[in-house]
Amino acid sequence: MKFVLGIDLGTSGTKTVLFDQEGRAQASCTVEYPLYQPHNGWAEQDPLDWYHAAVTTIKTVLEKSGVDRKDVVALGISGQMHGLVMLDEKGQVLRRSIIWCDQRTAKECDEIHATVGKEKLISITANPALTGFTLSKLLWVRNNEPDLYARCAHILLPKDYVRFMLTGDYATEVSDASGMQMLDVPGRCWSSELLRTLNIDESLLAKVYESPEVTGHISEEAAKLTGLSPDTLVVGGAGDNAAAAVGTGVVEDGKAFTTIGTSGVVFAHTDKLAIDPKGRVHTFCCAVPGAWHVMGVTQGAGLSLKWFRDNFCAAEKEAAGQMGVDPYDLMNKEAALSPIGSNKLLYAPYLMGERTPHLDADCRGMFFGLSAMHTRRDLLRAVMEGVTFSLADCLGVLREMGVEPAEMLACGGGGRSPLWRQMLADVFGCPVATTVNTEGPALGVAILAGVGAGLYPSVPEACRAMIRQNEAQRPIAENVPKYAKVYDVYKRLYPANRDVFKALAQLD
Fold it and tell me: Which residues contact 90 (CB under 8 A, 6 or more apart)?
């Protein structure tokens, strides 16, 4: 029996899982690390934290499983997208990574549109300039830290920095590179025209591969640290959402999934290039060679519930610790005691600005309709419903583009909640299912590793061999119109407060 490793480099931590050829998890390990927010709207992490987490989790998983290292034939890495890692000519980190949810680059986005032209930019990268994307972060460093920019020799994404540390190779792949806003998305290669227009040296960028392609193998040094064999192959891997698609089997037309992780995503596969001319959703190369995906993103999905847990649910955390259960389980039970609509309380999940459909770095989260009657359970349910409505905004744009999924798969931490899945089914108006294996992105990149190692001839065939699905939760007929009424009010919150958000952003 051969085995494959999947490494999922997330925002809160890195999770590594070892799988056999049939997709069964043999062992897993997670290591968390901090997020730095030196200013409002900023978000940074230390790349070395990711590498040390990867080494620790790989070593732990191998020890726990007892698998012979020679039988671990390949690994893939999934990563939080859009982060900027800058290295000097010796491969040393120059500054903390500016990660995906950082919102400091509004001026740089204006600069990109003014220099390139918005329509031209969308035609090349399939997306407008966005504060979360890597290109605007790079220009921010050039504009604000010119001495550091001058010392930069290599630009990598978070997962590709870990790849570099494990293999010594400067490499990336099309799905994650699509979110840098320097890739010709239709052509699946760096855009020399765009880079020339913006005066960016193409030599800063790593070689681009397809997601299942082999990019190298584990170095001797990394082999000693992790316990892996130097013969273990490393494949391109994928950005977190593209990896989640593979891990849930969304690798063919007509399939879609919703992720409720730190951010939230509604994602659909397409064999034909499709671009929203308004730039409300993102079109990227997907992990299946020659195909793309369209996705809408909610910045503060699971982040909203985590924020609420950390600040207002000390009692649930303490009780959960005594009971040996997850605090989120108790929070779900509490939220279920509040009715649909949370007793006329709404929540807008704009803790880190928003992407789909508003593209507004200045909008912020809010509870709307608070009164003395409301309890913590109402606030909890309102957070979950607000995130669900925000994801419905994403799905609405996809439906405008002709994407109408017959069934939705749910993944991420929030996808494990039956209450949240039922909300999705009732608001989306379609069945929502989960996979038997809940490892999502880790399984996705392990599947890509299996294809790269020759265990399977293609990504779809590997998915059919390694993924199994649970029975779907279907919409509850009486709930659908109730949610629809609340959603109609929710959709009025952003336009009613757009100018107020701008005024708030101008305060000292």
Answer: none
Task: Report residue 246: phi and psi, to 5°.
Answer: -65, -40
Question: pTM of this prediction?
Answer: 0.83
Tokens of 396: 């609405």
Radius of gyration of the chain (CA): 22
pLDDT for 366 equals 97
Q: What is the mean pLDDT of the chain?
A: 95
Give kind and range of the element (H or E) at residue 77.
strand 72-79
Report the DSSP beta bridge partners of residue 469: 435
pLDDT on residue 88? 98
Q: 395-443 pLDDT, tens per residue?
A: 999 988 877 888 899 988 899 999 999 999 999 999 999 999 888 899 9
Pairing of strands 3-9, 72-79: parallel
Q: Where in the chain is the domain with CATH 3.30.420.40?
A: 3-248, 296-434+476-505
CATH 3.10.290.10 fits 296-434+476-505, yes or no: no
Q: What's domain 3-248's superfamily in CATH?
A: ATPase, nucleotide binding domain (3.30.420.40)
- CA dist., res. 116 & res. 98, Å (int): 23
Residue 369, amino acid: G
Phi, psi values for residue 178, rounded to 5°: -60, -30
Q: Which positions are catalytic?
A: 240
| DSSP label of 357 | T
Provide the 8-state DSSP code for 250: -
Q: How many residues does the chain have?
A: 508
Give the span between the Cα atoms of 99 and 82, in whole angstroms: 6
Residue 276's pLDDT is 87
- Residue 196 has φ and ψ, to the nearest 5°, of -65, -40
Helix (H, G, I), strand (E, B) or coil at 235: strand
Are 159 and 237 in contact by the 8 Å Cβ rule? The answer is yes
SS3 411: strand
